[in-house]
Amino acid sequence: MELVPRVLGGDRRALARLISFIEDDGPAARAALAALYPHTGRAHIVGVTGAPGTGKSTLVNELAKALRAQSRSVGIVAVDPTSPFTGGALLGDRVRMRDLAGDPGIFIRSMATRGSLGGLAQTTGDVVKVLDAAGFEVVLVETVGVGQAEVDVARTAHTTVVVEAPGLGDEVQALKAGLLEIADVLVVNKADRPGAGQTARALEVTLDLGRNNRGEGDWRPPILKTVALDGTGVEEVLGAVADHRAYLRESGLWDRREQERVRVDLVRMLERELVGRLVERVGEDALEGWVEQIVARKVDVYTAVQTILKADPAGERAMSS
Ligand SMILES: Nc1nc2c(ncn2[C@@H]2O[C@H](COP(=O)(O)OP(=O)(O)O)[C@@H](O)[C@H]2O)c(=O)[nH]1
Ligand SMILES: [Mg+2]
Fold first, then answer.
1. 228 Cα–ligand 1 center, Å
2. Ligand 1 pocket mutation pick from 49, 58, 143 by most atoms within 8 angstroms of CB
3. Do residues 202 and 168 lie in contact, with contact meaning Cβ atoms separated by under 8 Å?
């Protein structure tokens, strides 16, 4: 595909077009991804996640500006599956990020869900690869930390920044358990609001109780306070992100995380391919027939799966090997 050399050469319009192809998930996009793959592996992929409204987009904007001030190129992928329902959230992000537009050292892409969340995780991963291949030194991935798919997206980052804010109530407390486990850097944003110190102390206690963090290494996530609105504390967050990168390199965890990322990617791709092929061979009508039989309690889903796989020896072989 002629887009590939242009993307590698720094052509921004080619980059935007290629990402659109990837979102449409055609065979051409896969060929391009295959061609780009040898050029990946250089970017520091930084996930920024947390509950809606904590200030992730504002923080990402400030982080990007601070990185640009250090002359480092930045790709941003903002994933917000809630936006089609709430309307306008992504638009708001775009407006806010306008002060970064026109700078060739930065590329911003907002992505809304089209298909399943699982599909979104895949697409996001592919877009990150393209930005990596295109030479962006840091790729910031903003995700809303509300579900497993978002956590999966965060898991594919080298460094995960979890954003909290005071005064968001119980809903946020409930999110903490899952998100704290994947946090490499903790940010209490909206430090200009009352309760920020208390939120930070609560996080401190929770960290002490539940060490740590993917069960690997002895990195303790620093807890940093920011006011993303005016940039206060943003340099410190960048510093912590850089420290974490150095830690990953020195401890050998960088390579382990790469392996984890590739394994997740490989298994996800195999699942998609196998299920796709199998459904194609079995046929939608036959599947519908199985659904009706299962609904009618004439057969159970477990037996149905075994029977379908037996009737399709290629699928059976692939699934059981
Ligand atoms: N008071 C205060 N408000 C903030 C701060 N950072 C972001 N906000 C506001 O919080 C709201 C949500 O911010 P946004 O970045 O869209 O949050 P996101 O949903 O996590 O991406 C916006 O109205 C921001 O202006 C901050 O540090 N202090
Ligand atoms: Mg946002």
1. 7
2. 58
3. no
What's the burial of 316, exposed, middle or buried (CB within 10 Å: 0-12/13-18/19+)? middle
Core vs surface per residue 25-53: b (16+ CB within 10 A) or e: beeebeebbebbeebeeebbbbbbbbbbe
Instruction: Give the distance (Å) from ligand 2 centre to CA of residue 15.
Output: 23
* Ligand that comes closest to the CA of residue 168: 1
Which amino acid, one-letter code, is at 259?
A: Q
Q: Which residues pair with 46 in a beta bridge?
A: 140, 159
Q: What does the DSSP assignment read for 220-244?
A: ---EEE-BTTTTBTHHHHHHHHHHH
pTM recorded for the entire structure? 0.85
Q: How many CB atoms lie within 10 A of CB 98?
A: 11
How many A from CA of 85 to the centre of ligand 1? Answer: 19
* pLDDT tens per residue, range 267-297: 988 998 898 889 898 999 999 999 999 999 9
DSSP code of residue 16: H
Q: Is the C-alpha dihedral spanning 145, 147, 153, 156 positive or negative?
A: positive
Cα–Cα distance, 142 to 138 (Å, whole number): 13
